[in-house]
Hints:
Two copies of one chain form a homodimer. The first copy, chain A, is 33% helix and 29% strand. Chain A is α+β, with helices and mostly antiparallel strands. The longest helix of chain A is centred in the N-terminal third of the chain and has 18 residues, at 48-65. Chains A, B: It comes from Paenibacillus albidus.
Amino acid sequence: MSKKERQQQLLHLIGGNPFVTDRELTRQLKVSIQTIRLDRMELGIPELRERMKQMAEHSYDQVRSLPADEVIGDIVDLQLDKSGISIFEIRGEHVFSRNGIARGHYVFAQANSLAVAVINDEIALTASADIRFVRMVRLGEKCIAKAQVRSQAGRGGKAEVDVFTYVGEELVFQGHFIVYRSAVEDNSEGGNRSVDRH
Amino acid sequence: MSKKERQQQLLHLIGGNPFVTDRELTRQLKVSIQTIRLDRMELGIPELRERMKQMAEHSYDQVRSLPADEVIGDIVDLQLDKSGISIFEIRGEHVFSRNGIARGHYVFAQANSLAVAVINDEIALTASADIRFVRMVRLGEKCIAKAQVRSQAGRGGKAEVDVFTYVGEELVFQGHFIVYRSAVEDNSEGGNRSVDRH
DNA sequence: CTACATATTAGTACCAGGTTCTAAAGAACT
DNA sequence: AGTTCTTTAGAACCTGGTACTAATATGTAG
């Protein structure tokens, strides 16, 4: 068997069972353990423990990625149809486990929640957004999002909201949201209370 | 701190971060490593590697026994640096209670997670995104997000990923993501093991 | 206070499953 | 024969532990 063939086999074996050790592979491929290791290096395949770690982290991050949680961030100031401020502290469950950097959608969620909250309408929904993650946000940092309503159509129209998120003095995120303010289909089952806070 | 209290703390710490080593725990609990190990034994908590192995096996089993269409909120297909598919079912906790319409950031989160997952790099982070919520998503609907990598720079560059999310045949969301593929910023404070995956 | 029990710490030997490095032997072409 | 690629071997070292022994603290009942 040629080197190429063997490496193909190796890829296939590890692909078929990522939990295989080098020692087991020597039995199946009938070459020395050094050859197996050289092959893994050439193919960029990490060792068993690293493979398991990556799988574990991946599935763990997956689990963490969507909380069954409601509002992202505390809205501390709200002037309807004008502006709003929300505070959100990045905690362990919001970051990638290995490097402590916040997952983008939490930062987005805070801004999105605020953009929607600031629009004074029964239903406000994000129609589109243009966003930029200016710098990474890390575990423990406190994000302060400030929203400004830029333009408005009347009932049933659209509103534009700019949101800037800071950590201290530093801009970390900016977003331009277009939010629908629709007086639509109020199939409300029960009291319509004031503002829809995301 | 009593033994009971410490063991409760230990359970909490490992529950909060299963990837913690005994050595790190000694720092947080201010007891010797032997005490940590005795506590783990009494509590029946396996060692770090065993914990990771179990998580890896668990997720692997799930991926393997993939009934493909009844999977919820999961990445069901992933070709690194090429494409990926994720399925997410909108449940009660994801919608506005009044009208049953999904909160935008859940739809975004699905797309964002997928866009990041599809990029094969140690750290992949969303740099910016241009998104459009094409139509509202309702309670009970199943969102199928399909990601396509459009362009790539090498290591340390950017990649562009398009994500389209459908409910049935209907497009509900589209997003154009620019994802940083950054070669780890190694602010190593000591034991930096191998590779940091996202 | 003493005696015993429990809790904690320390230290050693050992393990799996590797990495990293050096070195040598085999094969293969030309 | 000389050069290069491939394969094998072996030793040192690494992490994150287990298993075991032994010494020291701390508490608690008699």
